[in-house]
Amino acid sequence: MSDETIALDLGGVLAARGWKVAIGESCTGGLIAGAITDVAGSSGWFDRAFVTYSNEAKVEMLGVRPETLAAHGAVSEAAAREMASGTLARSAADLAVAVTGVAGPSGGTPGKPVGMVCFGWAERNGAVETATRHFDGDRVAIRQATVAVALAGLVERARWG
Question: Which end of the chain has fewer CB atoms < 10 Å from its terminal CB, N or C?
């Protein structure tokens, strides 16, 4: 399924519920927001996005605790959780996703290899879920896979949340 198809599905589900979505992005650098705003009419269900590539931006814009970054690093489920919660808290959205990862081709370590991406999904009802995925391929493929998983996770939560 293409990002466009998933984004269209997301828009239909959100519009039917009267919900809005917000995005917190690091390794995708705005690609999730771009996929959403490629959909005509997305202004009815897309609130905002934060591109927080640096640790400072994660702290300043999304309220990620410096202690979390020091203890777990930016590429961690702990950071993704705080990014998702912060995205939701700083928006008028009902649902948020945040992503942080190592898109490569450099920057990977044995514990956090290239292709490792952490996701956080937060709902206005207080539920926050995280997941880590490992993607193969080059930088473009890793970022595109991240967009697809983020959007699919939003659809799932919007449908059943």
Answer: N
DSSP classification of residue 45: T
Write out the DSSP string of 69-102.
HHHH-SSSHHHHHHHHHHHHHTSS-SEEEEEEE-
Secondary structure class of 110 (helix, strand, coil): coil
CA dihedral sign, ordered 29, 120, 91, 6: positive
Closest C-alpha among 78, 71, 85, 70 to residue 100 = 78
Structure tokens at 106: 């450099």
pLDDT digits (tens, 9 = 90+) for 3-50: 889 999 999 999 999 999 999 999 999 999 999 999 999 999 999 999
Helix, strand, coil percent values for the chain (each to nearest 5): 45, 20, 35
Q: How far apart are CA 135 and CA 148, in angstroms?
A: 12
Q: What are 152's two structure tokens?
A: 């699919």
